User: Which sequence fits this backbone?
DNA sequence: CATGAATGAGCCTTCATTCAT
DNA sequence: CATGAATGAAGGCTCATTCAT
């Protein structure tokens, strides 16, 4: 079951340290010196095991992406028999958990955040490998909720509104903690946040939904 | 009317170039060399006029913050006689314009974005000087919409949902342009976006609003 | 009269040290660290004054080329009234002096030798700037000696035979000094060498010359 | 007949790759990494089989020297019954073939050329083992041509003139191909070159020869 | 008021070599 | 007999900063 590349002690130590430091500093500010020092390894070890800084970064990215998706698969708990609304709730919850986790898998979230704010060459890979599938799943759910005949741009707009909320609760921490030191939006509040975002978004889509499903009598729902 | 610091030609050129480069690259990736080259100034000019790189950054930040807020004041067009819903629409529109503008005032938006994703020592200043007032205004509007008695945390949650959407439409460009090359969400689509976010958010708050304003008959709206 | 680039003390010291070290080691083996240490300058000075190692190398090359050609111009002492044979003697002497000088201008000869044995990107520049004119001059002299109607390839072959001898007396030093420790072929023997090469070559071309000047009676010459 | 050192597959692969790369790059620019990669061997194999980079280089040098001399012995085709002039022609031809061959044995020529332009510690060995015998043979031939009583320095001068020509036709390729793209002096032109050099040199020595053999009537030759 | 010159720390990378199995 | 792993020294280069005029 072991990955063939995982048998080196130094290599693992570097992966660990690199994950942490890249997550904290981003690609360009992180230095291989720091990483190696923290890993207790020689500087040249990076070149030996990963070719160069880029290679290390890519390896780190892929590794923690795997961990993250194994721990929180995008369709975690989604069953085909569920209603689209239920699926959305599950999706949001899973998405939040993936990006807000504070454990080791969380590094991936931070790596991602850095890529977002200053995309490197690795960004294209990330988009294709993980963002696109997630987006596709979300848009299918949203389309199902909005009903047939809805334009794709509408679906995209609503999906982005949902994703935007999730990401903001993740990234706004530096701001919110300064503005409202007493409020916290962390891993422990995931349930509350998922609930809030789900309800807010489902209501936000109701008008469009009704437009596309005119036969359903208004004021009957729930 | 002239600021006392504005009388040097070199100084102005540096401010201009620094605004552009800091906005593009962020604080740490931007180099004083690049800035001075672009400004046609000597490399020592930065330290001469601004002390050091940090000083320049701070000056740039404050300068473009002023410009940005003069151009798009947070309460742009908001009149006291408007309903909270109208105020929200105006706020969102103004907010979007401020962060999505592509002209010189836009540099501030980009500077802010960089600060957001990797806060520097200047972050605290920014939060107090410009984010807090904006947030306060938004939360007042949201509170007015939700009605009396609503808990502050609720207000915060809804406000964050709104802000999150706006920011995401601003920052998601690298992702969306890759996922859906044909769709665009730029300065030209501000009207569409403002409309979408406003309607989505107003609906999203309806349930909570109704809960706090039980006397209003359901199913009567619109 | 001063070059505009020559007013910096450090710059001059680096040019001096770089000339020596590049001449000794060649481009790739020489290190900027060594050069700067020897010049008493900071490592970053190279970047400041010359951009990078390549820039320094090019500057050195051009500088010492100038010195060398000012000291020993290819047509040194050649007058139009001289016979081609006399011109050849002068050319060979001048060529030998240029490549065998042991003073500062000699660095250029060594630089050239390194470029010859492992051409860098600077080789093309050198060929055009200094080798081509020299070759052209030599080939004109040789063509004049051989008489009209001689094929260009013949001219080239004879010219190369001449140049080959000159260069070998310059570069064979490591070999000869080991094989025949008592013999010396240095700057002090230039007269002897010039004489030898000139006579050897003039005789070497006689047959071809007579073929092209049949009217001249054999056995009458000299 | 097999050398005792020739029984390891890896060792042979390294010798092969090293020959090629050392020939192309010279000792200092060649890297053991490249060599091992090209040989399909582990990077530690060099140190295992040859001690270190120097050891490998020496082994390569000796090996290809052997091959080269087996293929083109310096006295290739020289018979004692030949006149000195005939011997010279044969020597020059053989010498040119050895240094201009493009096959595997040619690697030695290139190795030699690198040693020539930047002698390493291995240079002394080479001089003694292969240059000295060659030179001795050539000088004997030249002495025989020039006749008795000629001073050794004269013999040396003429020999160097001959060797210089041969080497130049070998090494001038980078220059000539730039100056006269249409002319070629490669392995295919060896006959032409050998002929040219032989005639040129024999004529070049005629005066000295006649001086030492006064009884021969001038103007009788050919 | 301004600048050309110079600095030292730090960056990523590459090298030949050695260790441990 | 051989190798994957690891090492330390050194390479060229770039940075923000300071000096001296």
Assistant:
């Amino acid at each position: 079951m072991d990955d063939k590349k995982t048998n080196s002690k130094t290599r693992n130590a570097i992966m660990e340290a690199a994950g942490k430091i890249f997550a904290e500093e981003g690609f360009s500010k992180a230095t291989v010196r720091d990483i190696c020092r923290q890993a207790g390894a020689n500087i040249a070890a990076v070149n030996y095991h990963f070719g160069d800084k880029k290679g290390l970064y890519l390896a780190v990215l892929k590794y923690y992406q795997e961990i993250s998706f194994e721990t929180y698969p995008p369709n975690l708990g989604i069953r085909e028999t569920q209603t689209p609304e239920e699926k959305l709730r599950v999706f949001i919850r899973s998405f939040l958990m993936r990006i807000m986790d504070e454990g080791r898998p969380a590094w991936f979230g931070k790596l991602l955040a850095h890529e977002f704010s200053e995309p490197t060459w690795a960004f294209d890979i990330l988009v294709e490998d993980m963002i696109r599938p997630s987006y596709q799943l979300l848009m299918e759910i949203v389309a199902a909720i909005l009903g047939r005949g809805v334009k794709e741009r509408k679906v995209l707009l609503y999906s982005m509104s949902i994703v935007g909320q999730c990401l903001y609760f993740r990234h706004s921490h530096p701001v919110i903690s300064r503005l409202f030191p007493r409020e916290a939006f962390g891993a422990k509040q995931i349930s509350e946040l998922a609930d809030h975002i789900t309800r807010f978004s489902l209501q936000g889509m109701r008008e469009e939904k009704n437009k596309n499903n005119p036969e359903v009598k208004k004021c009957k729902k729930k």
Residues 89 and 154 of chain B are 20 Å apart (CA to CA).
